[in-house]
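Exercise 3.2. Students should predict the tertiary structure of the chain below and write it as structure tokens, then compare their answer with the key that follows.

Predict this chain's 3D structure.
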Amino acid sequence: MGSAFSFLISSTEPINPSLGDLPESCVASVLVYMDPLEICKLSKLNRAFRGASSADFVWESKLPLNYASIIQRVQNFPNNLCKRDIYARLCRPNSFDGGTKRVWLDKSTGRVCMSISSSGLAITGIDDRRYWSRIETDESRFKSVAYLQQIWWFEVDGEVDFPLPVGSYSIFFRLQLGRASRRFGRRICNSEHVHGWDKKPVRFQLSTSEGQQATTQCYLNEPGTWKYHHVGDFVVTGSVTPMKVKYSMTQIDCTHTKGGLCVDSVVICPVEFAERLKQRF
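Answer key:
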């Protein structure tokens, strides 16, 4: 009998622990220190990681501190979402101010980015078809751009009053000389109206409700290519009241006309995204 009992003991093999044996709470405490894309990849490992990756405190650490204020400003944001789904939803473009502006989170970092359409800008003479027209295009995230045929006084202004999180931001105008279209599946650009931009530089300006200012200027060139023109940078320091930011581009030398310009949008993004933005399009 003793020998039989010893046989049962000797045949029992030790159990080797695996990642799947870790408590979800421990896994979640580690995921907090990883970026969102890494969390999504690790969620596919096993059930423990999948459950831990859904923990509210994990995703709340990735959301902007003032994400609740951002949600209040966007249109048709769903209620009763968990923090993971809130993050996922905010990573999609969310419209506000009547659909003329969109805000989203960068998927990798959770930083806030924003785009303002040409319809959300104050453009001198926009309602006079002798000067301006609206053009539908798939090359804009808003599906339309403002096209300038010819004008003497060129002025485009805008402002945004939004609860941006603390950080440093850059502002860009997205512009193109010439009118792009497609023929037989190929992209072509009509530059017949392009003139006047080589005589005087365009002046870009920004100012904030906290007294920050920036001014740059440049000549517009390279027809047929969408370019991001840097207006300047500003810093959000975390005041309770949302910072109001104003931006403009002008070329008001009335000694000559200018034309053939597409105005798509204004982009506001973290300063560290500036180089990435310039490489697009």
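Discussion points: DSSP finds eight helices and 15 strands in the chain. The domain at 22-91 is CATH 1.20.1280 (Monooxygenase).
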